[in-house]
Every structure is written in C-alpha cells, then in structure tokens.
Amino acid sequence: MSFPVFIPAGSLKLHPHLVFETLAYATAFLVYLAMRKRRGDALDDGDRWWVIAAAAMGAVVGCKVLYWFEDPAATLAHWHDPAFLMGGKTIVGGLIGGLFFVELVKHHLGVGRRTGDLFAIPLCVGIAIGRIGCFLTGPEDHTGGVATRLPWGVNFGDGIPRHPTQLYEVLFALTLGVFLWRRSKQPHTEGDLFRLFMVGYFSFRLICDFLKPDDARIFAGLTAIQWACVLMLAYYLRDIARWLAPRRTSLVQAARLEQSTED
Predict the structure, then answer these.
(1) Residue 257's pLDDT band (boundaries 50, 70, 90)?
(2) How far apart are CA 225 and CA 69, in angstroms?
(3) DSSP secondary structure of 105-169
C-alpha cells in the first residue's frame, strides 16, 4: 500500500482526507438528527441551532489555536504565513473550543440545562470515520505513531513499521460510542453522556499520544495536546469523582460486611 491512498471517483482521484472528513461531518450530523428525533430535545429549535452554531465556530477556533501551540517555534517562525496557520488542526482543540463557545452562548441565551448529550454519540461516529481518512493519508497527516515491532505495525512509506495510532483511535471511538449508546438507555444525569465522551476521549489521547513521535513534546515530556487533555480532565474532576463515588461506597460497604461476618 502506498500513501496517500486516493479514492477513485470516475476519472477523478480524491484525497482521502477530504473524502473521509466530509463523510465524517455528514454522517455525524445525520446520526445527531436521528437521535434528536427519537429521543427529543430539551431545547427549542431556535436555541438548539444557536448551540450548534456556537459549537461549530468554537471547534474551528479551538482546533487552530491548539495546532499553533503544538510547535510554538514553528508557529512563531511562520506567523505571517497564512498557508501554515490555516494548514493544520486538532480534534482535541476543536472539542475544547466548541465546549467553551457553547457555554458562552448558553449563558447569553439564559439556558441552564445541559445540552451536549445529543452530540456525544455523533462525535464518536465522526471521529471514527475521520481518522480512517487520516490513516489513508499517511505520513503527510502527521498522525502516525512511533516505530514498533508489533505484527500490525504499518509502513507509511519510510520503511519503518509504525503504530497505526489513527486506527487505534477508530477502534476506541467506536467502542466509546457503543458504551454511550448502552448508557443512554439507562437512567443518567442530564449532561453525563457528553461528559463521559469528553473524559473518555481526553484520557485516550493523553495515553495514546505517548505512542507518537516525541519531537513535539514541549514541557515535562508532554505535547501541547496532552497538556490540554490534562487540563480538561482537571476541569471534569468533580464529575469523575461523582462517578467513582458509588463504587467507593459499595466497596466500603462490602468491606464492612466482610468484617462483621468475620467478627
């Protein structure tokens, strides 16, 4: 296999990144519409479209800003080069930007309810499809992993078998989507599906990015993306503690019951 793997369309050969990124957006939006129709929506149409617009705008801004911080020296060197500044993006930055833009718009609209649950599963679907395009793009996408001797290592063209971290992310996103789908059918706190998605994805990226080349590590052995993940996990720390609390309680109760039985 030679990279990039172009997609044939009649007499044309389309770049895989363009094809799968477009397919990711379209499919995720269709999944969102289907879920909204099936499960209903706490927001009216007007407020919901404001939220969607804010999420989209925030994602555009966030994915660019974090990309610039991935390699600060290169960004400073190319600060006046529009092609460089607009040439890259990162999902982590897009999620962060979308989150905070939505919160600003909700505050402006006076919306106090959690509005992200309908986005959680569509985001998993979109990420899984989009990362297939990243994989088929090959080394120019800069999302491949470090060298590996594992049998599933992929030679992207430089003669070195590497971790196909894009495919790891596809598998994780699909697994997370199935988990959230099952969780959605059970009683849950409003907003928890989206929080579970964010915590799951940021945790995955924090770990998985250790399998990527270390030339982008900016401080303490972590990349800008990993530091962003750490900060967002801290942001959700109260929710993580809340989810773990019932388990801690059940473990304490089991320990007390065992102790009383022994006595």
Answers:
(1) very low
(2) 8
(3) HHHHHT--S---HHHHHHHHHHHHHHHHHHHHHGGGG-----B--STT-EE-SSS-EE--HHHHH
